[in-house]
Amino acid sequence: MTMPGNASGPMSMFQMGYRAMSAQMVRMNAAASNLANAGSVAGSADEAYRPIRTVFAEELDKQSGLSSVRVDRVVRSDTAPVRRHDPGHPLADENGDVWEAPVDENAEMVEMLEASRQYSNMVEAMSTAKQLMLETMRMK
Asked: Comparing C-alpha atoms, which of 90, 111, 110, 85 is closest to residue 100?
């Protein structure tokens, strides 16, 4: 991920905010993908959708001492799909079973709300920092 600003100098609080907001956006997109696939079915357990989760890692900028976050990876859940007997379904296997994605819609909504709040908190923090900088410049 390319960071705005001077990559060779210390990280600014705006770069830190950008990283945090980007990480929360990936988290929201993962939850949205899971919600979009909730209730989807497949003809086998191997083909069934499995929820994804974002894994974060801390990133310390030694020059500024600021700690930030980055997306380390996005992983697929090992939760087994739910087998449902539905012989009339076009994707049903020879036993009449389909495999439903194991997405907990309530948990995904909580995940999305938490990511949204964190994103909004960073927007507010960056806005406050910008306002304080502008007020400081006006004092001169």
From this structure: 85
- The pair of three-digit structure tokens given for residue 46, joined into one six-digit string: 């191997």
Closest CA to 75 of 102, 55, 56, 46: 55
H or E stretch covering 120: helix 105-139
17 three-state secondary structure: helix
> What are the DSSP E strand ranges found in 37-116?
41-42, 52-60, 67-76, 82-85, 97-100
- Mean pLDDT, consecutive 10-residue stretches, the chain (140 aa), reads 53 87 96 96 95 95 86 96 95 95 97 96 92 87
Phi, psi of 32 (to 5 degrees): -65, -40
Query: Sign of the C-alpha dihedral, residues 20, 23, 27, 28?
Result: positive
In the block, residue with structure tokens 């705006």: 14
Sign of CA dihedral 98, 104, 106, 108: negative
Q: Residue 93 has which token pair? A: 């296997």
Q: What are the backbone dihedrals phi and psi of residue 95, each rounded to the nearest 5 degrees, phi first?
A: -90, -5
